[in-house]
Amino acid sequence: MADEQNLDTQSTEANPAATEAAGENLAARVQTLEEQLAAAQDQALRAAAELQNVRRRAEQDVEKAHKFALEKFALDLLGVMDSLERGLELSDPNDESIKPMREGMELTLKMLHDVFKRYHLEQLDPHGAPFNPEHHQAMAMEESDTAEPNSVLKVFQKGYLLSGRLLRPAMVVVSKAPSKDKP
């Protein structure tokens, strides 16, 4: 056994270049493995983050689908609401011959308002409010001495929001300052 240790010591002493080369090879191999491990850890982190993003996007899509599933149906009902409101506006409340019809229209309109409220359909009636291009569509501009410039003078058609998102903009006439040319 002592002879074997002697041989190992002699071989190491006899070939220091081989020992140094083996050490460098081992260090290079460790460095390569460390780089591969770092790359694999980075890839795993990215995959986990991507999975989390996909999961979050899917949850948001489902939430939006639930929230705005009624959008097309609600758009179709807006015409019914407009017609009922217009009919009440144009009919004479003092005319006894149409009083039962008006009462029926008022009840129907109230029921429709309740349904809209239940399904988060909010009416935009911006008369007198400042013009908001996100919720209003300007159909015309009109000079006004009484109203602030850039405020809503008339509402041609009310707008609606569905769960806070614009369903239909309000069609409005916007005021502007009177021109100074007038005598």
Automatic annotation (TrEMBL):
Described purpose of this protein according to its UniProt entry: Participates actively in the response to hyperosmotic and heat shock by preventing the aggregation of stress-denatured proteins, in association with DnaK and GrpE. It is the nucleotide exchange factor for DnaK and may function as a thermosensor. Unfolded proteins bind initially to DnaJ; upon interaction with the DnaJ-bound protein, DnaK hydrolyzes its bound ATP, resulting in the formation of a stable complex. GrpE releases ADP from DnaK; ATP binding to DnaK triggers the release of the substrate protein, thus completing the reaction cycle.
Record-linked PROSITE patterns: GRPE
Compartment list: Cytoplasm
Domain of life: Bacteria
InterPro entries in UniProt: GrpE (IPR000740), GrpE_CC (IPR013805), GrpE_head (IPR009012)
This protein's name: Protein GrpE
Family to which the UniProt record says this protein belongs: Belongs to the GrpE family.
Subunit annotation: Homodimer.
Region (Disordered): 1-23
Broad class of the protein's primary localization: cytoplasm
Coiled-coil intervals, chain numbering: 23-61
Keywords, alphabetical: Chaperone, Coiled coil, Cytoplasm, Stress response
